[in-house]
Fold this sequence. Notes:
Layout: E1 5-9, E2 16-20, H1 25-37, E3 39-43, E4 50-55, H2 59-71, E5 72-76, H3 87-91, H4 95-103
Helix pairs in contact: 1-2
Amino acid sequence: xxxxxxxxxxxxxxxxxxxxxxYLRGERxxxxxxxxxxxxxKTSGKDGKPQMxxxxxxxxxxxEDRAVLLAVHKLTKLNKEPVKVTVEVLDxxxxxDFKALQDALPSQRQKKK
Length: 113
């Protein structure tokens, strides 16, 4: 299935990204699963009710990375050389470039009819 994309020029690195205009349902579930998986539960006591044991506080950065990874269809350098989009590539982008990608992500909210 071909999805429409928008082209985004990154201001500092001058790379060009093609970003999908919407997420697939499975992609949204994968992004949300990061947050849900960050909570550790344990059962203790006589009643056996679950209690939160801890939260992986890096979940927000992981969700941001995953949202961009799933939305970027292509990333190319100024000379048209393709770049494989990975977390390492995202971590090495100037902050302004990453924010430009985030601004181009599909809306998180459902459109009202």
